[in-house]
Design brief:
The protein is α/β, with parallel strands linked by helices. The protein has 10 helices and 9 strands. Helix 8 links the parallel strand 7 and strand 8.
């Protein structure tokens, strides 16, 4: 593995035709084989773009998920969709699907992530990572019924068992890294103690290297929380993970000294590419951001990523940003080697 390894957070930018495919699927205009072919092609494009850019650890671009966690309720039983409370005006987090709980929650066929990772491993011999939605974030779209589940924590405990089952089979495929996506805890900082307890129970006993991704939301490139990590630390160091994936670039590198303020032995995958901005940062700008992070993080502990997933970014812009990040990493890596 290179010093200062480069990877994506998870999702990659959609090809233009992907929007036509998803619209046709919603109208019932595609057969099962039609949709499978399109999604396979989209994954292959995402992998090819990452290889061309030169990233070190690949993902499948999350092409089968249709927008972060939106597709996962399709695997759950014991829920039904709620009508949207707002359909007009600017798109926002309050327009994402929510579900009423109607019975005990289960996922008889799992969450589908094993199939995603298996296909990716068939495409490449390069190191790969897989992103898994955490139980706390998954629970945010489900409304407790007041009977079986009285709180979001009750729902998260049930989802914890479902996610844990998925993690057990994922590690058998040998990904270089399993990343748990839990942006909800960064956006809603209450109940941090219960979050840590549920999270550690979910990953207990896993042998794979684990990361946790904490962002402030990126639906339609909009955040949803108070954008500061400091209140979460040092409590988050109680989590059983080896790496934290955090965003910095879109906050003008605020809290770049976080690892200096809270000394620790964990890796930091630092977001040094602003996915909320169509401005393509020059290579030297990204290199300066990397140098800034190295003032607080040991080179052996620093990974480089975009702030968040690229699913809300046009593909040409995403590819240019990712390519520039790889070039910037190479420049700083050479500086470190000479030093």
């Amino acid at each position: 593995m290179n010093l200062l390894p480069v990877t994506t957070v998870g999702s990659y930018a959609w090809p233009g035709w992907y929007y036509l495919v998803t619209a046709a699927a919603e109208r019932g205009g595609l057969g099962r084989e039609d949709l499978k072919e399109a999604l396979d092609d989209a994954v292959e494009i995402a992998v090819e773009d990452q290889l061309k850019a030169g990233v070190d650890i690949l993902t499948d671009g999350e092409m089968r998920r249709v927008d972060f966690i939106v597709s996962f309720p399709n695997y759950l039983e014991g829920i039904e969709p709620l009508p949207l409370e707002r359909k007009l005006g600017p798109e926002g987090h309050d327009q994402r699907p929510r579900y009423r709980i109607t019975g005990e929650i289960s996922a008889p066929e799992g969450l589908g992530i094993f199939g995603e990772l298996k296909y990716l491993c068939q495409l490449t011999e390069a190191p790969v990572k897989v992103a898994v939605p955490g139980p706390h974030t998954l629970a945010g779209r489900l409304v407790p019924d007041g009977r079986i589940y009285k709180s979001r924590e009750d729902v998260a405990w049930t989802l914890s068992e479902i996610v844990r089952g998925e993690l057990r089979i994922l590690q058998d495929l040998g990904p270089h890294l399993i990343q748990m996506d839990e942006p909800s805890i960064a956006c809603y900082k209450e109940n941090l103690d219960s979050f840590a307890e549920i999270f550690n129970a979910t990953v207990k006993g896993l042998k794979s290297k684990l990361a946790i991704h904490l962002c402030f939301g990126n639906y339609r490139a909009r955040p949803i929380g108070l954008r500061t990590y400091a209140p979460l630390f040092p409590k988050l160091f109680e989590l059983s993970v080896q790496q934290f994936v955090l965003e910095f670039a879109n906050r003008e590198m605020a809290e770049a000294d976080l690892w200096k303020r809270f000394p620790n032995d964990r890796e930091l995958a630092a977001g040094v590419v602003d996915v909320k901005n169509h401005f393509i940062e020059p290579v030297e700008t990204m290199a300066d951001r990397i140098r800034l992070m190295l003032k607080s993080v040991e080179p052996e502990k620093l990974w480089l990523v975009p702030d968040c997933g690229f699913s809300q970014t046009p593909r040409p812009i995403a590819f240019a940003k990712l390519s520039n990040l790889v070039k910037a990493a190479a420049i700083v890596r050479a500086e470190l080697t000479r030093a």
